[in-house]
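Researcher: Let's do a round of design. I'm pasting the structure tokens now; please hold your answer until I've finished.
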């Protein structure tokens, strides 16, 4: 009688997959990502008072925005995961850092989502960071929903914003609702899916859900309230409902069309209709390409990949957490899985459900979920874990470092903590560490994608490992791993504005002061290979 049991477990898996939504919010800093995150949590009942999540002087902190440096600078620099239930749907919201220097972490997070919400400031439209993040979503054809925020402030005309989305991003923009009034006179939304208007009321400090009144359209009180603006609104609605572009789900799922919603995250106007529409539109977990072909989420065999490592998330625990995105099958606490990179079996003890900084042990998880695994140095970004026959998911792209600096410890008695901190931060992918090949001056050289990462390294070494450091910038802009005949390499007299170093695994790395210098060396020493780390690791792993 084993068949019915198998059937029921696969039914359960299919049911759990169907009710998962895993997404990230992308935006230019200050467009309102943190505020919208917080308000989504408020509407989903995951927090009860917006801004009151952590006892903080500033109301703008959401639970996913927790590091000291973030707080000091008011920017979100590390991604975390938030899981909550709303109307029977299990939502996994992966927080992406907002600052442009942290794009690498953001890129990795976007590898782990099935859809994205793009937040635009109604006065600014598409900004540089929006474009960059959009480009990553486009590469993976991630479906994108757009929330045009700050409608309570004077902004650009909605038509102009839709046109900008179409022209700048090359995506068809289909409004699902339309703002009624603007700036201080923003009263609510016309729902283009149903002939109705949604009026909102502000609450004290915008901390509670804004009461929403639904009226059929046309509505006599609206003519009175809007006065002269009523006529143009009627015309716009006639135009939008008549000739407007229709929503096409397949094009949305292919990332070619974006449904657009208007609102104000600050005053909570439009957050509820947006959340409801999100649950309907956003796709459940998608399949993922692996060395064994496309893995479907409903495949009974468990599989997942690590997209992020984070040390010291909770000062009380002081450990490292690996973030595992489940791709297929049912994950169970204590299950034995195959670790593709180490080619060995490991037991999944102590898996956690994450909510920003908080965590709790879980017994099971399903595709789309993000599980926190306490990481005793076992996991690296991009690792695949699976049950059944071994497989590996496609690698997570790495970004070549462009900023370099010597890291000096100000406290030589704390060498052990210094080295441990460096190793752990490197494992997280915050930066790479290189050393002088002769080991005489063992002052590490940091290599990072963005300069702000140096501040993060220094700040985290101090707060998490108790070591004060200073970073001294170096004038290099490129790094390449050099391989070839050791005799040839030994005889080279490298030009000025280059530096020969080794990475943690002892492989030779050259730093260059300019692209031109690299081209010169590649020509001059044509028998050698000058490669990016990603390229050299691909060769080594194959
Ligand atoms: P980010 O995560 O995308 O960087 O943006 P965040 O939510 O932190 O919002 C940036 C600023 O914009 C904050 O103001 C926030 O209050 C404000 N904001 C967010 N949504 C809206 C909105 O719908 N309407 C208006 N008018 N403002 C909005 P701040 O002055 O930087 O911080 P705070 O002092 O208000 O906390």
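Researcher: That's everything. Go ahead.
Model: Designed sequence:
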């Amino acid at each position: 009688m084993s068949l019915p049991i198998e059937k029921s477990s696969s039914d359960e898996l299919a049911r759990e997959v169907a009710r998962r939504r895993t997404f990230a919010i992308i935006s230019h800093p200050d467009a309102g990502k943190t505020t919208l995150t917080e308000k989504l949590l408020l509407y989903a009942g995951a927090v009860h008072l917006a801004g009151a999540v952590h006892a903080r002087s500033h109301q703008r902190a959401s639970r996913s925005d927790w590091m000291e440096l973030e707080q000091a600078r008011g920017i979100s620099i590390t991604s975390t995961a938030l899981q909550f239930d709303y109307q029977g749907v299990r939502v996994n919201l992966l927080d992406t850092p907002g600052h442009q220097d942290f794009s690498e972490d953001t890129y990795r997070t976007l590898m782990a989502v099935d859809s994205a919400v793009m937040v635009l400031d109604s006065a600014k439209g598409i900004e540089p960071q929006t474009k960059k993040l959009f480009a990553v979503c486009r590469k993976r054809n991630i479906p994108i929903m757009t929330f045009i925020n700050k409608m309570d402030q004077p902004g650009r005309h909605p038509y102009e914003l839709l046109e900008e989305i179409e022209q700048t991003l090359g995506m068809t923009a289909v409004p699902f609702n339309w703002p009624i009034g603007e700036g201080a006179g923003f009263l609510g939304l016309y729902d283009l899916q149903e002939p109705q208007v949604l009026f909102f009321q502000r609450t004290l400090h915008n901390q509670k859900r804004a009461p929403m009144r639904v009226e059929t359209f046309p509505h006599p009180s609206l003519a009175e309230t809007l006065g002269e603006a009523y006529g143009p609104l009627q015309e716009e609605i006639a135009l939008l409902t008549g000739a407007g572009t229709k929503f096409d789900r397949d094009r949305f799922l292919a990332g070619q069309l974006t449904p657009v919603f208007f609102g104000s995250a600050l005053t909570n106007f439009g957050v509820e209709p947006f959340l409801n529409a999100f649950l309907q539109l956003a796709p459940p977990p998608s399949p993922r390409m692996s060395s064994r072909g496309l893995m479907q989420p409903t495949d009974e065999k468990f599989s997942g990949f690590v997209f992020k490592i984070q040390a010291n998330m909770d000062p009380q625990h002081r450990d490292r957490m690996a973030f595992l995105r489940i791709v297929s099958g049912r994950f169970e606490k204590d299950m034995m899985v195959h670790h593709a990179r180490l080619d060995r079996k490991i037991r999944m003890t102590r898996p956690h459900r994450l909510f920003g900084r908080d965590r709790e042990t879980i017994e099971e998880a399903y595709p789309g979920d993000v599980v926190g695994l306490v990481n005793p140095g076992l996991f690296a970004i991009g690792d695949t874990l699976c049950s059944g026959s071994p497989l590996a998911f496609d690698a997570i792209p790495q970004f070549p470092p462009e900023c370099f600096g010597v890291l000096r410890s100000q406290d030589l008695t704390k060498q052990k903590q210094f080295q441990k901190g460096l190793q752990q931060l490197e494992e997280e992918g915050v930066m790479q560490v290189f050393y002088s090949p002769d080991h005489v001056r063992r002052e590490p050289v940091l290599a990072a994608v963005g300069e702000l990462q140096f501040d993060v390294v220094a700040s985290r070494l101090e707060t998490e490992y108790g070591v004060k450091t200073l970073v001294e910038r170096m004038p290099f802009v490129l790094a390449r791993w050099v391989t070839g005949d050791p005799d040839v390499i030994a005889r080279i007299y490298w030009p000025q504005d280059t530096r020969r170093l080794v990475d943690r695994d002892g492989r030779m790395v050259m730093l260059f002061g300019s692209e031109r210098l690299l081209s010169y060396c590649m020509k001059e020493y044509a028998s050698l290979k000058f490669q990016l780390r990603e390229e050299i690791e691909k060769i080594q792993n194959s």
